[in-house]
Amino acid sequence: MQDKPVALVTGANKGIGLQIAKDLAAHGFTVLVGSRSLKNGEEAAKSVGPDARALQLDVTNQVSVDAAAERIRRELGRLDVLVNNAGISHAGKPLLRKAPAARIVNVSSEAGSLTLNADPANPHRPMFGAVYSPSKTALNAVTLAFAIELESTGIKVNAACPGFTGTDLNNFAGTRTVEQGAREPVRLALLDENGPTGTFSNEDGPLPW
Ligand SMILES: NC(=O)c1ccc[n+]([C@@H]2O[C@H](COP(=O)([O-])OP(=O)(O)OC[C@H]3O[C@@H](n4cnc5c(N)ncnc54)[C@H](OP(=O)(O)O)[C@@H]3O)[C@@H](O)[C@H]2O)c1
C-alpha cells in the first residue's frame, strides 16, 4: 500500500469534478481522475498534475466500476477520499475501510432539497422536475444512509452543493466559477477527525434536507 493519500473523483474529466481533482492534488493527494472516456480522462489528468492518473469509470456500468476498484486495489491498495461528483458508486467501500480516516463527498444540489422546494415562496421551485432534482434528493438520502452505516468506522460521509456553477451541465449559464463550485466538496474531503458526518451544506453553511 502506498503512503501518500489517494483520492478518486468521478466525472473528473471536466467541470467541477476536474477542479476538485486539481484542488486535491494541490493538497498532496494522488488523484484518480475518473472519466467515462479514458482518452478524456488522460487529457484531464495531464492538467491535474504529475501524480494524477486517469481511471476509466462509468458509474452506471458495474463492469467498469468493478474494474476500477480492482485497479485501485492492485496499484494503490487504499482509497482515502471518494468524491461522487458524477453519481453514486459503491466502488471504493472496502478500499475506503483500509484508509486510516477516509472521507466520502457526494456532490449534490439545493435543487434536491425537499424543504426548500416545498416552500411556495421559493422562486426556484418550478425547477423541481421529475428527474434531476429527485435524483439529488435520493443522493441526500443515500448520504445519510452511508453516514449512519459507517459511523463506527470513522469514515465521514457528507453531501455538498457547489452552487449554480458555469459548466456544460447548464450550458455555462451558472454564475459561479468552477473554483468556487469546488470549494465546499474539497472542504468536506479534507475534514479532520472532529469534522461532521451525515451533513448537507454549501459554502455558506448547512442546507435543509
Ligand atoms: N453546475 C452546477 O450549477 C451544479 C449545481 C449543483 C450541483 N451540480 C452537480 O455537480 C456535479 C458536477 O457537474 P458539473 O456542473 O461539473 O457538470 P459537467 O461539466 O457536465 O460534468 C459532469 C461530469 O460527470 C460525468 N459523468 C456523467 N455521467 C457519468 C457516468 N455515468 N459515469 C461517469 N461519469 C459521468 C461527465 O462525463 P462526460 O464528459 O463523459 O459526459 C462529466 O465529467 C454533478 O453531480 C452536478 O449535478 C452542479
Describe it for me?
It is globular and about 50 Å long. The chain has an eight-stranded mixed β-sheet, sandwiched between helices. Helix 1 (15-26) crosses helix 7. The chain has seven helices and eight strands; from the N terminus they run βαβαβαβαβααβαββ. The chain has helices spanning 15-26, 38-48, 62-75, 93-98, 114-117, 132-149, 178-189, and strands at 6-9, 30-35, 52-56, 81-84, 103-107, 156-160, 200-202, 205-206. The mean pLDDT is 95. Strand 1 (6-9), helix 1 and strand 2 form a beta-alpha-beta unit. It has one domain (6-206): Rossmann fold (3-Layer(aba) Sandwich). It is α/β, with parallel strands linked by helices. The protein binds NADP nicotinamide-adenine-dinucleotide phosphate (NAP).
Could you write a compact summary of the structure shown?
With 209 residues, the chain is α/β, with parallel strands linked by helices. It has helices at residues 15-26, 38-48, 62-75, 93-98, 114-117, 132-149, 178-189, and strands at residues 6-9, 30-35, 52-56, 81-84, 103-107, 156-160, 200-202, 205-206. It is 37% helix and 16% strand.
